[in-house]
Amino acid sequence: MTFDDIANPGKQMPNPAGNGSTMLRTVNLKKIYTTEEVETTALDGVNIDINEKEFVAIMGPSGCGKSTLLNIFGLLDNPSGGEYHFLNEEVSKYTERQRAKMRKANIGFVFQSFNLIDELTVFENVELPLLYLGVPASERKKMAEEGLERMPKMHRKDHFPQQLSGGQQQRVAVSRAVVAKPALILADEPTGNLDSANGEEVMNILTQLNEAGTTIVMVTHSPHDSEFAHRTIHLFDGHVVTENYKEKFHV
Ligand SMILES: Nc1ncnc2c1ncn2[C@@H]1O[C@H](COP(=O)(O)OP(=O)(O)O)[C@@H](O)[C@H]1O
Ligand SMILES: [Mg+2]
Predict the structure, then answer these.
(1) Which ligand neighbours the alpha carbon of 58 most closely?
(2) Cα–Cα distance for residue pair 251/248, rounded to 1 Å
(3) What is the pTM assigned to this prediction?
């Protein structure tokens, strides 16, 4: 199934969510945080399948485990139990080194608080993931230029993050997330610090990236933003409580 199929609601859609091949799957996933005083069960048996090219929203009250789940999806942290299959590899017990290699090659992140590096210019921030990947300098420049050119209203590549508005900073963060052309983008409340106009623009950019084939998993508190996704997964107390597929998709 192609994005034409998704973008054209008149067509027959045998599987509305992605192209049918699994990108990530969790089996009875658990995460327990242990500090000196307390044990917190953040994820308590989560079973989720997400297909390539899907756009999935994750919702639920504060503290229900959304960020924990996204961190595990993003290979930033290991689960305490259960399985996590990413691109057909069971990665739940990978070392930090193994996770980093897989993460850099396949995953881009967008955070609520932008997380740009203040000491680096816009251009240098966007170039950074390519530096980590060992892309040669000339190629890096070209890819970072292209990434920024695709972003609307992004002509301030020599400015520093603090000189930009929140909306501009998030566009830079999205450019940085996609510069290495990752198969998966993970976004944790990407519009949480933005006004509605800038939030809408970020959602439109994510939608375009999804239509171009990128899988997107986005945590959001906003029912409006979740409407951009093909499917919304609701978490409560570390469990999946419901999953809703959209009947029609935003174009
Ligand atoms: N690093 C951590 N150490 C200890 N407890 C944590 C840590 N991160 C999250 N938690 C706890 O795990 C639960 C889930 O947190 P989180 O995944 O951040 O929820 P959400 O993103 O849905 O608000 C909460 O009770 C939170 O306090
Ligand atoms: Mg969170």
Answers:
(1) 1
(2) 9
(3) 0.90
